[in-house]
Design brief:
8% helix; six-stranded antiparallel beta barrel; 44% strand; Thrombin, subunit H; mainly beta; Pnp Oxidase, Chain A
Length: 232
């Protein structure tokens, strides 16, 4: 993760962020002499809104130098904050600290969190390209869905039909996972990428931005099958 992609986040959202981040773990570390880091995995996080403190449970007992700062990095949205000497105390594998005043991380995606759909599920979307010019012949296609958000789909296409797709092409989407949508939704290709996990040789990942959100029934069905993306 590039540090220049992280931004200072609004403190009024910290409780909500920590509540979500508590599900996905992270790590904390302390730098020592000679540039060495003592890293420990975070297992769970508990939030006390009464006294505005965090109780962070780690996998192993914590051995720290109290005159050094501690750094905490959470998997969700790459949240990162620093605890100065005196800001924390240690009890075995438990770190207790006040809610940080400053924290950086990835900004929230406009379309909401993404949910990765494991390839073994083989979830597909049925769509048909809208004509780019009068008389263009288009066909209904079945593509594999690899991630979903309320306002977007990530799909893959093979090397044999990737020539069909271009940036800003528009599609009507009729069904997902062989279940017809209540009404067709229009989507437009907003990115194309030939790199990434789950791609077969020569394949391409497409990002479809939906002109209207998926209905709640369809979205909830899909996200229950997926894994929440750990960054925005």
């Amino acid at each position: 993760m590039r540090m220049d992609s992280l931004r200072y986040l609004n403190p009024s959202n910290f409780i909500e962020l920590f509540s979500t981040a508590s599900l996905y773990g992270g790590c904390l570390w302390q730098s020592h002499e000679m540039g060495q880091k003592n890293v420990n995995e975070i297992v769970s996080i508990f939030i006390c809104q009464i006294d505005n403190t965090l109780t962070i449970h780690c996998k192993n007992n914590l051995e720290v130098h109290y005159d050094h700062a501690l750094f905490v990095k959470l998997n969700y949205r790459s949240l990162l904050f620093r605890l100065r000497p005196g800001d924390y105390k240690i009890e075995g594998p438990i770190l207790i600290c006040r809610m940080p005043e400053k924290m950086i991380g990835l900004e929230r995606r406009p379309g909401g969190d993404r949910f990765l759909l494991p390839s073994v599920l083989d979830i597909s979307v049925s769509l048909k390209k809208m004509e780019r010019y009068f008389g263009e012949i288009t066909f209904e296609l079945e593509l594999r869905v690899i991630d979903v958000s309320e306002q977007g789909l990530g799909v893959t296409v093979t090397m044999f039909n990737k020539h069909i797709f271009k940036h800003h092409d528009r599609f009507n989407i009729y069904s997902i996972d062989n279940k017809s949508l209540k009404r067709p939704i229009t989507g437009v290709i907003c990115y194309m990428n030939s790199k990434g996990p789950g791609l077969k040789t020569g394949g391409v990942r497409l990002g479809l931005k939906l002109h209207s959100p998926l209905d709640s029934e369809t979205f909830n069905y899909l996200k229950k099958k997926g894994h929440r993306v750990l960054h925005a």
